Amino acid sequence: MALQVYWYDFVCFGIVAASLCGALWVIWRKEGSSSRLEDSNMYDSLLVARPNSEVVFVGALPRGHVSSSQLWTSCWKGVHPGWLLFTRILSFLVMAGSLAWDVVEWDATIFVYYTEWTFALVIVYFAIGTVVSAYGCWLLSNQYPSANREPTESLTSDLEERRETKVGTKSQGHYAQEDIQQTAGFWGYLMQTAFQTCAGAVILTDIVFWCVIVPFLSNSHLGLNVLMGCMHTLNAAFLLLDTALNSLSFPCFRLAYFVLWSCLYVIFQWIIHACGVSWWPYPFLELDTPWAPLWYFCLAVVHIPCYATYALIIKAKNTFLPRLFPHAFVRSY
Q: In the chain, how many domains are there?
């Protein structure tokens, strides 16, 4: 057994356990206790589909809500959802190719790194996004155009009206949202969760790599080369490109998913070391030093500014772009 446990390691275990339990509590509190929501909000959630007989939309939605059409429409008026589909396909293919290159170069053991976990999660997000966008484009082509307006213009106008009014009306755009809501509930929830988890994790991995590993901890596996540079650049670049185009919201409570993701990775490291692995991919995860509790505490705390950084990017997008482009940009909430 390669993992030796010292008294101070129990502090590390406690930090991870507290973070894990706190994240699960927030997730249950915000997204699992549907009985706490009013009926009008339940029907518009990502988890519960509205009955077919009900056609009136309520605009007063819970903070974490994302309507189905927001998964595949752009925040820019006049931009066809096909462009968002194109960027997601391109991002998926380039990132999947980069990951395959990494596996061929180093073999499957690269998945002991948090970077590879995060990179794979971003690929999963773009894979789901590609499928959802493709379905959205299919839905759009079957239910539009309107008699007097272009399809994309009609759709974005309907979305904007819904976000700015308390009660919606029966319109063609609302019926289109109604149809996709019945099939995209689970995938919409998964896509939104993956997006927000990726956002925090990408900031964390890139900051640690460029600011800590490259200057101070470079070795044969973690040194700066073309492949590693691509791995720690493409993830942020493609995610920011998608953010600039998509209509997804970014509620702060989903920081819990980011924390949960990191906790699962740390637990994975403990398990493989308990099974005989003696080498740690990151020195600050080692448990055989009295400084371990401080390192683990710092790692837990750093999740907040990493997630907040991306939240500020979304905030800036929804604050400044409507002022710069008042007739072209639709806010996401």
A: 1
